[in-house]
Specification:
This protein is of the alpha+beta class and 470 residues long. It has helices at 3-19, 73-81, 98-104, 111-114, 143-148, 183-196, 240-243, 258-262, 281-284, 294-307, 309-316, 336-346, 368-372, 408-419, 434-440, 443-453, 462-466; strands at 55-59, 64-68, 85-87, 121-127, 133-137, 158-168, 172-180, 198-199, 202-203, 206-213, 216-225, 252-257, 322-332, 352-357, 389-399, 423-424. A hairpin with a 5-residue loop joins strand 4 (121-127) and strand 5 (133-137).
Length: 470
C-alpha cells in the first residue's frame, strides 16, 4: 500500500486518540475480534484503525515485510505468497491480525522450528497509552517494551507497523497422517521430530496433531515440495480433520497447495463448524461456500451471545445450560500425555489439537536461570528456552452442574495446567486470583512497564482485561 498511505492511516489514528476524553478508557474502534472472553460494553469513541489494515511493503531479497497492525493474515499471506514467501508462523484463522497475534500470541505447525509470531518481529511501532508512537526493537531504548509487548493484549499499547521476517516456501505441502493408539507414543514421536526435524527418513517442515480419543490420535507431518501432482480441496464438501482419520498402520498421504495448507483449519474453524450443522452433508450441500470460514462462524457466535440462543434451546430440551470451555494451553512436552489423559477423563470434550513449539533460542538469553527469572526474553509469557512445549487446544462446552461455582470446568483446567508446569493463553475466559496471575504473567515487571508507558492508565490493566469477575 506504500508509505504515504500508511502515514495517513497513522495520522487518522492519532487524531482519534486525541478526540477521546481524558477520563475515557482508550480502546480500538472495531466490531470484530478473535477473543472469546467477555468484553465490557463501551460506548465511548475508540481508536480509528481503519487506515491500518494493509501490507506496506515487501522486500523479497531481505525476506522481510513491513505490515500494519490491523492487517489480517489472509491479506498478508496473499501478498507474501506472490513472492514465494510466507510469515514464519501463520496462525490458523484468516482474520487474525498480525498485531493481534503478536500482542496476544499465536501458534501453528511451524512453531516447533520457528517459535511464536512475535519472535519473527524485527521492529514494531507502538502507540503507547501516553499517546506517543515509539519504534521498539530488541536492543534499542524501548527494548523493555519490545520484549513485554507479547501477551500484553493492548494494555501497553497498539502496534501500527511491524517489520517481520519471512521465509521461502514451496508451492505444495505433502502430508503424512500418522496414527497412534495411545498418547504416550504421540508424545515420544513429537519429541523426536522436534529434535531431528524428520520422521522415518523424510523431512518434516510442519507438525501438528489431533487426539480423538485416548486410543485414536494422529500426527500430521508436512513437507514443502515443488513436485507437481494432484491436490486435495477441503474448501467445499470435504472436511479436513475427518480426512486425517484412518485405520492403517502406514501413514495416510495427502497433498495441498501451500495456501490451502495454511488455511486448512479455517474452513471449518478446526471442527467447530459442526455446532452449526455445517458438517452435515445435507446442510453443507446448500451452505454458500463463501460462508465456510471462521469469520462467518464468528457472526453466528455473536448472535448466540446476544440472544442466548444456545441456552434457550438447552432449556427447551430440559437440559442444563452449558459452560463455554474454549482454551489453548501449553505444557512441557514430557507432560503432554499425562495432561491429555487427565483431560479426557475429566472434561467431556473432543477432539483436542496438539501443536509443539519451541522458542527460537534468541541471543538475549545468557543462560537458563536468567530466562527463568524473566530478565530477558518474553516476561509476560515466560516459556523457557531450549525446552519443547505442546499447545493443546480444546474448543467446546460442557453442562453446568448445579451447586458448582461459575466457570467450574475452566477453573479445574487452570489448576491442572499450573500443576503440569504450563501456561494458558488469555484470549478466553480466565479465573485466576491476582497473586497467581501475577506469578504466571509478568507481575512486577508488567506493573513497572505499565507505569512507564501508560502513566495515566488510559489503557486497561492486563488482569482487569483478561480475568473474568462478577
Amino acid at each position: 500500500m506504500g508509505q504515504d498511505r500508511h502515514e495517513a492511516g497513522v495520522r487518522t489514528l492519532l487524531s482519534s486518540y486525541r478526540a477521546i476524553p481524558d477520563a475515557a478508557t482508550v480502546r480500538l474502534a472495531k466490531k470484530t475480534s478473535n477473543l472469546f472472553r467477555a468484553r465490557p460494553k463501551n460506548t465511548a469513541p475508540g481508536l480509528d484503525v481503519s487506515g491500518l489494515g494493509g501490507v506496506i511493503s515487501i522486500d523479497p531479497v531481505a525476506m522481510t515485510a513491513d505490515v500494519q497492525g490491523m492487517c489480517t493474515y489472509e491479506d498478508l499471506v496473499d501478498a507474501t505468497l506472490h513472492h514465494g514467501l510466507s510469515p514464519l508462523v501463520v496462525p490458523q484463522l484468516k482474520t487474525i491480525t498480525l498485531g493481534g497475534a503478536v500482542t496476544g500470541l499465536g501458534i501453528e505447525s511451524t512453531s516447533f522450528r520457528n517459535g511464536l509470531p512475535h519472535e519473527s518481529v524485527l521492529e514494531v511501532d507502538i502507540l503507547t497509552g501516553s499517546g506517543d508512537i515509539v519504534t521498539a526493537t530488541a536492543d534499542n531504548e524501548y527494548s523493555d517494551l519490545f520484549h513485554a509487548f507479547p501477551n500484553s493484549y493492548g494494555t501497553l499499547g497498539y502496534s501500527t507497523r511491524l517489520r517481520i521476517e519471512l521465509e521461502r516456501v514451496h508451492p505444495y505441502v505433502a502430508l503424512r497422517h500418522v496414527r497412534f493408539h495411545d498418547v504416550e507414543s504421540v508424545q515420544e514421536v513429537m519429541t523426536r521430530i522436534v529434535a531431528d526435524r524428520e520422521y522415518d527418513g523424510e523431512r518434516v517442515d510442519y507438525l501438528d496433531g489431533v487426539v480423538f480419543t485416548g486410543s485414536e490420535a494422529y500426527l500430521t507431518l508436512g513437507r514443502g515440495t515443488d513436485e507437481p501432482g494432484p491436490v486435495s480441496d477441503y474448501t467445499d464438501d470435504r472436511v479436513f480433520y475427518r480426512s486425517i482419520q484412518h485405520d492403517g498402520a502406514a501413514p495416510k498421504r495427502d497433498r495441498l497447495t501451500i495456501r490451502d495448507y495454511l488455511w486448512r483449519w479455517d474452513t471449518d474453524w478446526f471442527w467447530c463448524s459442526r455446532a452449526f450443522g455445517a458438517q452435515n452433508p445435507r446442510i453443507r450441500k446448500f451452505w454458500p461456500k463463501k460462508y465456510l470460514r471462521s469469520s462467518f462462524y464468528w457472526k453466528l457466535i455473536a448472535l448466540d451471545q446476544k440472544y442466548d440462543i444456545a441456552d434457550r434451546l438447552e432449556r427447551r430440551k430440559g437440559n442444563p445450560i452449558r459452560e463455554r470451555v474454549v482454551q489453548d494451553i501449553e505444557v512441557p512436552v514430557e507432560n503432554t500425555a499425562a495432561f491429555v489423559d487427565w483431560f479426557l477423563r475429566e472434561i467431556p470434550i473432543e477432539p483436542l489439537w496438539l501443536c509443539p513449539l519451541r522458542l527460537r533460542e534468541p541471543d538475549g538469553y545468557s543462560d537458563a536461570s536468567e530466562a527463568d527469572a524473566g530478565v530477558r526474553g518474553w516476561p509476560l509469557y515466560p516459556l523457557q528456552p531450549h525446552r519443547t512445549y505442546v499447545n493443546i487446544g480444546f474448543w467446546s462446552s460442557v453442562p453446568i452442574v448445579d451447586g458448582e461455582p461459575e466457570g467450574a470446568a475452566n477453573r479445574r483446567i487452570e489448576r491442572t495446567v499450573t500443576e503440569f508446569d504450563g501456561h494458558k493463553s488469555l484470549y478466553s475466559d480466565s479465573f485466576y486470583d491476582k497473586d497467581e496471575f501475577d506469578a504466571l504473567y509478568g507481575g512486577e515487571k508488567y506493573r513497572l512497564l505499565k507505569k512507564k508507558y501508560d502513566p495515566d492508565s488510559r489503557l486497561l490493566d492486563l488482569y482487569s482485561k483478561a480475568v473474568h469477575r462478577r
